[in-house]
Amino acid sequence: MTLSGSAEIAIIGPALLVGLLVLASAAPLGLIIVRRRGPFTSLALAQTAAAAVIIGEALWGERNVLAVQVTALAATLVCAAILTKLQRRTHSPEVTAAGVFAVAAAADLMLLARDTDGAQHLMVLLSGRILAVSPGLLAGMVLLVCAALMVWWLKDAIRHPLIVNLLLGLVACVAVQIIGLVLVLITVTVPAAAARRAPVSWQPFVAFNIGAVGYATGLAASLMLSVPAGPAIVCTVVLAGMLTDRLIGLAVRRTAWLAD
Amino acid sequence: MIFNRIALAASLVCACLAAQPREAWSHAADAMAAPPGAVVIAPRTEARAGGTEIVAIFSKQIFAVFLSRYADGSPVIGAKVEADTDLQSATLTETDPGIYSSKELLMAPGRNDLTLKFTINGVASTKALTLTTPIEAAEAPVSRPAISTAGPVAIGGAVAAVYALLSAAFLLARRPQHRAMARVVARARRAEG
């Protein structure tokens, strides 16, 4: 570590803030996804969002941010609606989600094959650029989190797959551009999966805190070991999830610590 | 079980990461490749003026001209060579037999029109040449860390405040159906016990 303490906080702080905001919108959605045993749905929607962003950039150019975002959001929401309809009609929704993921990934590859900076672009989409967060993006994330939490509170989202998928598509579309595809998948699924044995009413709180610990330790590890932040956070979130899952299992077994 | 599914999904993404970059770069390489049959050593151009063969190259910021007799390929020694572009002109100095060079001429990427004036054994000649230098691909935008202008205390405070706010929100918003579900689970466990 060669940076001073204040410089470290200036780099890590905004990234951690973004991580917390993404977690706040992803943790409740992740619990619903995990309860339905459907991590492929989140993967498919995140990959679709990535493809939508690439299509937006191909149509309008990277500098036309507003047009790109509007196109990407519209395309993601349409794909989320189509995915929901397909999942309703088939007997195996997870296979459908895997198929949508594969098609979206193939579309990504075909679109990026024409781009001379395709490899760089794909790397950013996969690993994200959480350390390069602009204030505008941060404000957008705050609005998104408020909207996601409001919908989660006001609607009984568990009973409406379309609302869950649209909300997840919305979160994925914004988050995939900041934290990357792999981290979106891990943020949605791992904390929720690790918290599933906690008392039901505590699960969102536990999932959020698992993610928060993972993000904080991942960013610190990235700074100390000079490794990319996104992949480091992925590893620490998974470790935090496994550790918490084990601890909750032990606690439930020994003390019969039940809900409420 | 759920961790197995997540691991499977993550491995699919990693497989895409491993497979894609080479393909994308190969397309970039194809776009910049020379036409079939051409061998590119450095940006160069060739011409003939009377009995003199001229080969001009631009490499490592050095503009060099090779003058040789067309008949036998022997180097032309002791010539006076000047090169002009639209904005610059330079007198080339003979560094080796038949090789005249200058570091004063700068070539822009793409097409460069230049005029070569040379005097061999008192006979002056002028030849217009076109030298095409490669256009370098624009560098990919590099993500820079968002070092905020706010002080570390302000940033740390903001992070702590957001964390506390969101944690409190999750604690306070324990939804009625969650509580009802929890009661059902507790009742079921009591019945099992």
Describe the structure.
The complex is a heterodimer of chains A (260) and B (193). Chain A has ten helices and no strands. By secondary structure, chain A is mainly alpha-helical. Chain A has one domain: ABC transporter involved in vitamin B12 uptake, BtuC, CATH 1.10.3470.10. Among the domains of chain B are: 44-133, Immunoglobulin-like; 158-192, no CATH class. Chain B contains three helices and eight strands; from the N terminus they run H-E-E-E-E-E-E-E-E-H-H. In chain B, a hairpin with a 2-residue loop joins strand 5 (89-96) and strand 6. In chain B, 36% of the residues lie in helices and 32% in strands. An eight-stranded antiparallel sheet of chain B has the order 1-2-3-6-5-4-7-8, with no helix packed on it. Chain B has 193 residues and is of the alpha+beta class. The interface between A and B is large, with 72 and 55 residues.
